[in-house]
Amino acid sequence: MTPYDFNAILPILVLLGYGCLLLLIDLLIPADRKRLTAWLTLLGLAGAALAHLAWPAGGQIVAFKGMLVADGFGLFLNLLFLGTAALTVLLALNYLPRTGIERGEFYVLLLFTVGGMMLMAQAADLIIVFLALELLSIPLYILSGLARPKPSSEESSFKYFLLGAFASAFLVYGIALIYGATGATNLRLVLNEATLANPRLGLLLAGVGLVLVGLGFKVAAVPFHMWTPDVYDGAPSVVTGFMSVGAKAGGFAALLRVFVTAFPALAPQWMLVAAALSALTMIVGNFAAIVQTNIKRLLAYSSIAHAGYILMGLVAAGSAQAAVQDAALGASLVYLLAYAVTNLGAWAVVIAVERAEGGGLTLNDYAGLGKRRPGLALAMMIFMFSLTGVPPTIGFVGKAYIFGATLQAGYVWLAVVGVLTSLVSAYYYLRVIVIMYMQEGQPVTTSRPALNFTVGLTALATVVLGLLPYSVLAIAGNAIAGMAR
């Protein structure tokens, strides 16, 4: 291992090493004082964030003979993962004791899965992509069943595990076919062989398709989305909120890097498939969400729909024009940031309304929230507007940039589908607001400093970032400019 290799992997080493240490420390912490484990987890996340100072400013490191990279793209996503995990810990401080499932392993597994996400963002080899996907997924399978012996939680974990293993098989088989067609798994070496002149073109395209299927499951793209509503509904809400943001961002980190770096010569082929998946995902996700009466299932189908919007960025990133490709990648990062901030805030409100015995999850449970808890209702309204794409929220900025990049790439019809499905989504997002402010009820909510801080911070960020769109785009643009391609 060279010093460059060590610097590139240092944030991941810090996080995973600290996770192993925390596993031992947690054994010494009494069962009624697991909040200490949560605060120690925040310390580990902060340490991993500071470890990025070992990376060169504005530069990049190609480590382990090209298997791992440390660049602006990885830095942006790593900090997004760490921030998402930190907010999840704050939510868990309120949620886990109230629901009777406060266990120290929650925080350790959280650190491990974030390590997998960070490895995914830095992967420059298909073997590393697979290892990162497993490191990301296996802790999430366990976290989904954290509320044992609750049947719905155990069912959620088992279903997620079975379908996740099935999707991993698709990914591994796809990697094997790509290796058979190109003789390499390193993305830059695959780039040299992944051309239309390749004598094993059919084998190569089949491998690319299977990789798309494997990663499409992780981001909940249609038709690989069937696990999402049931897993989101059965898993503890704090796990679901983290999963809906972190796992999705990790999957898209791999999709964007792999397809832009390794398969630009095959873009005309995979762009059409990705565009069809994007349109189908937006349509199915939004129309299925209309009929939902459970807030967790509504947000599950909403998550599916937003995967379709981010897929538009992948489609546009396949453009042969460098400027359009950069715009699409930057727009995808902005959208991931917008979705993370907004969706975590929405799940924080769900946690505040959800009751220990499993109540508070229907839309009617939000009736009267505007009168009983005006601050909480205002925050939820901001989140619903942002998910719809209403200015001046960060959700509007994300959709504006992603639609603009899609138009620049020449996919006008896909942008039209995106706009029309956004109008459809307004129905079920605004329905939540109508119920909160225009129906009578007595919602039961919890109020703790960590929960209130998370709701307030995400609501403020949703608006402030929406008012500073050029600053957000500049940060994303700098990340893309420093991306190893």
Q: Main attributes?
A:
1% strand, 76% helix, two-stranded antiparallel ribbon
Short synopsis of the structure:
This protein has 485 residues and is mainly α. The protein is built from 19 helices and two strands. The protein has a two-stranded antiparallel ribbon with strand order 1-2.
Description:
The protein is an all-alpha fold and 485 residues long. Helix content is 76%, strand content 1%. It has a two-stranded antiparallel sheet. The longest helix is centred in the middle third of the chain and has 32 residues.
Number of domains: 1
| Amount of helix | over 70%
Unreliable stretches covering 5 or more consecutive residues: none
Could you describe the largest sheet, including whether it forms a barrel?
2 strands, antiparallel
How far apart lie the N and C ends?
23 Å
Strand order of the largest sheet: 1-2
Return the string of H and E elements: HHEEHHHHHHHHHHHHHHHHH
What value does the average pLDDT take? Answer: 90
Secondary-structure blueprint of this entry?
Layout: H1 3-26, H2 35-50, E1 61-63, E2 68-70, H3 72-99, H4 105-122, H5 126-144, H6 151-182, H7 187-193, H8 201-218, H9 227-234, H10 237-262, H11 267-290, H12 295-317, H13 322-353, H14 369-372, H15 374-388, H16 394-408, H17 412-438, H18 449-467, H19 469-481
Antiparallel strand pairs: 1-2
Helix pairs in contact: 1-2, 1-4, 2-3, 3-4, 3-10, 3-13, 3-18, 3-19, 4-5, 4-10, 5-6, 5-10, 6-7, 6-8, 6-9, 8-10, 9-10, 9-12, 10-12, 10-13, 11-12, 11-17, 12-13, 12-16, 12-17, 13-15, 13-16, 13-18, 13-19, 15-17, 15-18, 16-17, 16-18
